[in-house]
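User: I'm writing a tutorial on reading structure tokens. Could you give me a worked example: one chain, its sequence, then its tokens, then a sentence or two explaining what the tokens reveal?
Assistant: Sure. Here is the example chain.
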Amino acid sequence: MPVTFLSLCDKADELTTGPYSMAGSATHQMSIVAAILLGAAPTGFGLFRAWQTGSDFRMLWMALAATVFAAGVMAASIGRRHTRHSAYTQAIVILIVSTLTAGGVGFFLGAGARFGLLAVAFVLGTCLATSSVLIALSRSKPG
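And here are its predicted structure tokens:
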């Protein structure tokens, strides 16, 4: 059977509607991609800082501690349908506790500049909280 444009389109439709495809609109798909990138950003920031300095791994440890906490909160809510209110509540909890967790780890690892430490911890927590909101709202019900 010769390969035609229509047969390629049919094959593409089969691939995009299979069990491993991303269902939903383009906006939904972009929301998921943005959530993944924001969730990985703190670890990326930490790895970049470690690579840049060669010996300072404090930011990497801060990012890992905050990410583990946020992943735990998000894992606890797997399988539940979220309303917008519960998604925002979860994000606020992740923001506050991830910021405090990252700040505490940085403090115990000897970070000297308190304001800088708090600012970095807040940025890490904000990335994780935003990722949480995007994921929760991508599978939320109205309300």
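What the tokens reveal: The chain is about 75% helix and 0% strand. The CA atoms of residues 26 and 79 lie 23 Å apart.
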